[in-house]
Request: fold
Amino acid sequence: MQVSPIKFEKFQSVEDADCQRRIIAARQKLGKRLVILGHHYQHESVYRHSDYTGDSLKLSRYASEVDAEYIVFLGVHFMAEVADILSRPDQIAILPDLAAGCSMADMANLAKVERSYRELNKVLNFDETITPITYINSAADLKAFCGEHGGIVCTSTNAPKILEWGFARREKVLFFPDQNLGRWSGYKMGIPLEQMPVWDPDLPMGGLTVEQIKNARILLWKGHCAVHQMFRLQNITQFRQQHPDGIVISHPESPFEVCQHSDYVGSTEFILKTVSEAAPDTKWLVGTELNLVSRLAEQMKPQGKLVQFMSHVVCECSTMARIDPQHLAWVLENLAEGNVVNQIKVPAHEAKLAKLTLDRMLEAS
Ligand code: 13P
Ligand code: SF4
Reply:
């Protein structure tokens, strides 16, 4: 007999410690039928339950390789969509809180991208001259748009390589939704800043002249990450004054001048690897989300490494933080009872085109 799903309200006031016990019990019951993928920005209280952890690229690969019936994603909405798209049709992707979105991903939507496509088509033949590249931090329908128009997806790990892929096919790139990642990656390839103008989708013709569009190599969508936008060059200057031998490492979603003045720039996985493998007693300033930096700081203490967060204000990804022990316990207990709650299912026509672009990316990187 089918039992109706347990309502989330029943978990709202359950203490964290109790949730931890219930998560462990439900996991034991589910065994190999369940795999939990955790992004590095997740809070320790749920991250500790991950079977696999990683940045967006690594987690995409896991999603395409794991065999479990249920893939529970500790991350944000677009990541669970990717898990659904790359897993087999009989596997089920679950996001413990459906409100865990990505504010940057929301800065581009299909209506705006299609309008931009039509406007750019007035100046040049889009499908012959522009490769659309979407950062993986975007909704599935934008990945599908790229699939339909000869484009591709990138992550913070592979963006320069994916830009090369785009330029090998067409002379220009429309890069969305993160202007910072696009600008930094283009700059590393040697593209002058004046050939990477910002395309503002809320202005007619992106707020650009016909000449600017014709001269552009990369049109950078006007979008950014509110968390990384908080990091300032001043934070780096102060750190270097206090620690002349200190090392600065940042995520490429950070503002351009922060990336420019960092010693290393890379994905969350790259940051973890670089700091973990560094010599003992080194001092690091890290420009990425607070949960990752706090965890890394604790892990590095026994090696005498100082790991300092780049901002003086709290820069936590508030949407990532929605995945808490209460939501995880709720979805797992439901699964253990045979009820699927919070499934992420991308419509088949979108999933097909989006998969094409994700497969292109996995192959190119
Ligand atoms: P990574 O792919 O580097 O983990 O980045 C994802 C993200 O959302 C960073 O804000
Ligand atoms: Fe999105 Fe920024 Fe949060 Fe990453 S840190 S998930 S880009 S809002």
